[in-house]
Amino acid sequence: VRDAIQWNQDWASWLGLRHTQLNRHGVLTDGSQSTSLKQDFTTPWLSTGYQFMPEQQVYVSWGEGVQALNVPFSASGTPYDNDGAPLPAQRTRQWEFGVKGHCSQTHWGVNLFRTQKPEGNVIGNLYTVDGDSLHQGLEGQFRSTLGAWTVDASAMWLDAQRRHSADNTLNGKQPTNVPVHTIKLGASYRVAAVPGLSAQAALINEGRRMVTPDNTVQVPAWTQLDVGVRYTQRLNNQALVWQAGVQNLTDARAWRSTPYQFQHVYLLPLAPRTLTASVLVDF
Fold first, then answer.
1. Diameter of the chain by CA atoms?
2. Using one digit for the tens of pLDDT, what is the confidence trace for 227-245?
3. Taking the CB of residue 118, how many other CB atoms lie within 10 A of it?
4. Mean per-residue pLDDT for 117-122?
């Protein structure tokens, strides 16, 4: 259920309410270890905005969600006492305060956010919900078109910490596989001499990540540069879109992601320099 209220020319509110029924079952293929869990949640969402100038708005929002966790089957050889069981789903919560606007060919926005979400961990011989992680940060977006150029930029700074864990050595630590910052820059240029032809470039930089929950191992920041061209060809009432590009132009070597699951570390590398080509036919 959702609604929007326009209080006057400048003030507006948006609100919603979602009811979720979770009915989860699990069983091994041999028919053993049957588990089930039923839960109901009603989660609200509310936002209020003030237009302080035409097409420029400051806003605040708050909402709840639901995150379901399951117990993995132990990869260490010694099974958990609750192997494969669904854990009680938990509420997530997020606050956001921001400013956004539109002016001519430029869109922009800046916001502060604060998100709480549950974490799972092994306590004794049980895999269970073990406190949460708090993610606080600042992010911004910018997009502008000037003549033949279109520029996109976004950046996020993030401070994430584990909280309320039964293992006090984890409290205050940074969750695994969470970059401390992300920066994305993109640009495209329409070639006036060849209608339908454009060139693009994109630069991505992600900050360091923790590999292990105790933060004793981490991977450094990495940067990837992609370039490409795009040509839209008109044939009667159809369109053919030709694309070619090079991903990871500098052939950078790095670990792009470091998920920690089932008490194991997984290191996922950046793909090496890769040439791509495609054609899309619009019927």
1. 69
2. 999 999 988 888 899 999 9
3. 19
4. 90
Tokens representing 263 are 């008490």
What is each CA distance from 222 to 137, 201, 242, in whole angstroms?
20, 17, 30
Q: Within 13 A of 104's CA, how many CA atoms are on the CB side?
A: 4
* Per-residue model confidence as pLDDT tens digits over 167-218: 999 999 999 999 999 999 999 999 999 999 999 999 999 999 999 999 999 9
CB hemisphere CA count around 250 (13 angstroms): 11
In whole angstroms, what is the distance from residue 166 CA to residue 209 CA?
23
The CA distance from 184 to 186, in Å, is 7
Radius of gyration of the chain from its Cα atoms, rounded to whole angstroms: 24
Q: Tell me the whole-structure pTM to 2 decimals.
A: 0.87
How far is residue 83's CA from residue 31's CA, in Å, rounded to a whole number? 14
Q: Which two tokens stand for residue 105?
A: 């060919």
Q: Which long-range contacts (CB under 8 A, 24 or more apart) does 153-156 make?
A: 153/184, 153/185, 153/186, 154/182, 154/183, 154/184, 155/181, 155/182, 155/183, 155/184, 156/181, 156/182, 156/183
DSSP string, 131-183: EEEEEEEEEEEEEEEETTEEEEEEEEEEEEEEES-SSTTTTTPPPBT--SEEE
Indicate if the alpha-carbon torsion angle 73, 74, 77, 78 is positive or negative: negative
pLDDT tens digit string along 56-105? Answer: 999 999 999 999 888 877 666 677 888 788 889 999 999 999 999 998 89
